[in-house]
Structure formats: structure tokens, C-alpha cells
5-formyltetrahydrofolate cyclo-ligase (Ketogulonicigenium vulgare), 187 residues
Amino acid sequence: MTIDDEKIACRARAAARRALAHAAADDRASARLAQVLGEYAGQVISGYVAIRTEIDPMPALRIAAGQGSRICLPVIDAPATPLRFRAYTPGDALADGALNTLEPAHGDFLRPDVVVLPMLAFARDGRRLGYGGGYYDRTLQALRETGPVVAIGFAYQAQMDDDLPTDPYDQPLDLMVTDQQIIDFRR
Ligand SMILES: Nc1nc2c(c(=O)[nH]1)N(C=O)[C@@H](CNc1ccc(C(=O)N[C@@H](CCC(=O)O)C(=O)O)cc1)CN2
Ligand SMILES: Nc1ncnc2c1ncn2[C@@H]1O[C@H](COP(=O)(O)OP(=O)(O)OP(=O)(O)O)[C@@H](O)[C@H]1O
């Protein structure tokens, strides 16, 4: 199998585990994410609007907004380009974006200090696998080239896969928050 085929197989397995975890979800993961985001109170924090069975970061983002953080959401400009981030107040209306996503139609473009990002699978060492668009890989690479940024993965523990295939361009996570634990890969 090529690495691309291995990624496709790993995505399919992780999606099935994620769907099971999503059906049984409680609010433990949200509480953990809110706790971690509290350490970045007052900073610019990017979230996402959950699609399919992704774990929902909005409850924690609302709490972060209440702590003086500015929230933003990813906006797709074009295929194979980094995401941009638009200011967002939790509860505001969203518009249809590309690839079945929802995104802010207006608002300032911000550079996030913290990026909370979804995934299909992660490994215990901070590697991550997304849907295959390479959007977050390109985006984190660009952000890391221009200054500090903290990449926080948010997922169900069931999405862990230590054997997930990785390429040299895959951008690692700094922190991982799940329904069961917080892992800091920086130490
Ligand atoms: N919630 C969320 N927002 C996100 C991402 C994500 O993974 N999750 N992204 C992370 O990169 C960016 C968008 N990238 C995406 C890449 C692929 C698909 C995707 O496979 N979508 C479809 C197929 C859509 C179509 O072709 O119409 C699907 O839901 O099956 C979605 C978003 C930015 N926003
Ligand atoms: N930093 C980068 N610069 C240029 N191309 C990149 C970069 N990162 C990834 N790519 C390209 O993006 C494509 C998809 O990458 P990959 O399969 O690793 O995405 P993913 O991690 O599953 O998705 P995402 O990052 O959107 O969550 C690959 O063809 C890869 O060549």
C-alpha cells in the first residue's frame, strides 16, 4: 500500500470509531477544552464549526469568549491554499462555505495565537490526520513561519491511532484535548 492508501484506510477506521464515540458523548471533553483555553484568556483563538461527527468545540469557545478571548473561525479561500481566519462571536449567523462547511461571511481577518483543530485520527506523539485536504497542514506551516502559534487538537480518545501514517509535511500538534485526557507534546 502507498502512504496515501494507508491514510485512506486509517481515515475510514478512525471515522467509524469517531461516530461511535460521538453517539455516546458527554460534556467532559468540553470542560477540559475550556480549562486549557483558560490559559490563553485574552488571546485570539480559532475554533471550527463541527461537521459530521466531529467533537463540538463551541461550548468551550463561548466560555473563552466570556474570558476576553477573541474567537475566529477558518475560511476556505481556494483549494491548496492556507485557511484564513475571520472574527466570530459565538451565536452569530454563519454562511455556507466550501466543502459543506459553515463560515463567517463578514468580519475582520485575524491571526490566531491558538488554533483548535478537528481531525479524524491522532497519535500519542502529536501526529494528526485530517480529511486529506492538507488545509490545516498548510495553515499551521504558514503560521509557524510567521510567529508563535499553539495548535490544540480536539477529538474523542477513541480517535487515537499510534500507527497512523504520516508524511514529512504533516504538522504536529502542540496539545491534545480529549474526553479522557490533556496531552502536552511540548514537554
Ligand atoms: N469542521 C471543520 N471545519 C473545517 C475543517 C475541518 O476538518 N472540519 N477543515 C479542515 O481541513 C477546513 C475545511 N476542509 C475540509 C476538507 C474536506 C472536507 C470534506 O471532505 N467535506 C465533504 C465533502 C464535501 C464536498 O465535496 O462537497 C464531506 O463532508 O464529505 C471538508 C472540509 C476548514 N474548516
Ligand atoms: N505545508 C504544505 N505545503 C504544501 N502542500 C501541502 C502541505 N501540507 C500538505 N500538503 C498537501 O496537502 C495534501 C493533503 O495532505 P494530507 O493528506 O496530509 O491532509 P490531512 O492532514 O489529512 O488534511 P488537513 O490538514 O486538511 O486536516 C497532500 O497532497 C500534500 O501534498
